[in-house]
Amino acid sequence: MRFSPTFLLVGGALALGSLPACQSRSSDSTSAGQPSASTTAAADTVVPASPNDGITARLIGSHIKVLASDEYQGRKPFTVGEQKTTAYLADEFKKLGLKPGPDGSYFQKVPLVEITGTPAPTMQISGGKQPFALNYKTDYMAFTEQEKEQVALTNSPLVFAGYGVVAPEYGWNDYAGLDVKGKTVVVLVNDPGNAGNDTTLFKGKAMTYYGRWMYKYEEAARQGAAGLLIIHDTKPAAYPWSVVQSSYSGAKLRNQTADKGASKCTIEGWITLDAAKKLFQAAGQEYDEAYAAANQKGFKARPLNLQVSTSIRNKLRRQESKNVVAVLPGTARPDEYIIYSAHWDHLGIGAPVAGDSIYNGAADNASGCAALLAIANAFQQAKEKPGRSIVFLAVTGEEQGLLGSMYYANHPLFPVKKTVADLNMDDLPNMGPMRDLTVIGYGQSELDEYARAAAQEQGRYIQPDQNADKGYFFRSDHFAFAHVGVPSLYASGTADSWIKGKAYAKKMSEEFEAQHYHQPSDEYNAQADYRGMEWDARLLYSVGRKLAGETTFPQWKSGSEFKALRDKSLAGR
């Protein structure tokens, strides 16, 4: 699923899974200084012939036609659509002669819990000269990942901890010398380099994982905090408060955990910028001064000398969904694995638009699953089989927050320390062949070089994501693998049509966002040009083949927030 902060407002309740999602198709058409980048529409519009490798536009289109049909009801987890989708994928893997997972099944059960939370109407603030209340939805949003019928904060001391970041590689620790057990931490959205004025901090305008709300909740829990509240500021957040409101209200699926979420903060949430300024004023402090201090190295967390009280009542429902997995065993190093991933789920049946209520998800993400099957076909028909094992993984629950891929990463069927890389496909554009290969998270790992070489084989050029400040690297299933240290590649042609140039690509991307993204009109189109998907699939196939023939493991680059995880994992290999 690709992220469009503007368009999410159209879908209303359908924005529920929006914040964890990945990037918009819309992008700046510049190449960020890449020397081989095309800057104008190409004069040569002759499209090179495709090799006979088993990856074809026709094959990809045929799979999309099935997966995005009305019969599959929008592929929502826990519906008939899930049953049909997972059965189709498993059957196709079987037809190709691929092996099931290590337990003899093509399915990995993914236990999920649906938590429907009803927060208290107000969040009570005490300890200042005059107690006051913040109002639910208007001033604050709150949820919990703890599987309890009710959770509460009662007179929990409030502490301002800057960005809530512990980043050893950047010499940054907002929790240094701070004991937050039983306390509620208030933090800024984004990270110091991205949100502040000093672009020498962290990765400057390119968001790091430390800027993601997911990280902030994780770190607060590791520190023992009872609660965490993120201050929403529209500019650094890159989406308005209305997106927070829609994303954190109603039923929400979570991965079940052995401790039923007990290791998570009791309450996680957001407050508006105005509410935050009100807190600081009640604490006798200036918000602007605190913000400026938080953007300086050596920042020290500070108590607000206020207490917060609020509660959430929950309805719980536990069910199982499925990841689909198939394996082509390696011939030389079968105990080392390259994973191809794509999410099979979409939004199901929802509010009718122009009389159509089935959100088919042809691009998002029948396209990725179709490419997954096409790549599997190429590996199977190749005369030379891969030295390393190739894993094909279609995951559930991406639209609800990367649930299937996160579950796999935490319950891997194949050892993480033996996993070479993840190559992810999500929402492949159907604009025909593309000259660019836009890499989300460019500069993170050595997989950039593999992608560049494969792109050059096709006569294409590579460019970084032109909206790196939005943190799109953290919004699709490849991130679940990065989260446990596995280098991950997420790339596709999005910005420069081989035949019609950049202006056309931009126009088509904007049209998709405005008219079809997360709408029933994202449907199979027999007249669509699926050659761009074919080229992207072939490029990733080429990357996988090269990785499969090597004995080394690609590494994260110096400065990546995932490098330490990988180094630790490989040390125990």
From TrEMBL:
InterPro entries named among the record's database cross-references: M28_fam, PA_dom_sf, Peptidase_M28
Residue ranges with Low complexity bias: 35-48
SUPFAM superfamilies in alphabetical order: PA domain (SSF52025), Zn-dependent exopeptidases (SSF53187)
Signal peptide: 1-23
Boundaries of every Peptidase M28 domain copy: 323-526
Keywords tagged on the record: Aminopeptidase, Hydrolase, Metal-binding, Protease, Signal, Zinc
Highest taxon above the source species: Bacteria
Region described as Disordered: spans on this chain: 24-48
One Pfam family recorded for the sequence: Peptidase_M28
Compositional bias of kind Polar residues: 24-34
CDD domains in the cross-refs: M28_like_PA (cd05660), PA_M28_1_2 (cd04821)
UniProt-listed PANTHER family: AMINOPEPTIDASE YDR415C-RELATED, METALLOPEPTIDASE M28 FAMILY MEMBER
Protein's name in the database: M28 family metallopeptidase
Record organism: Hymenobacter cellulosivorans
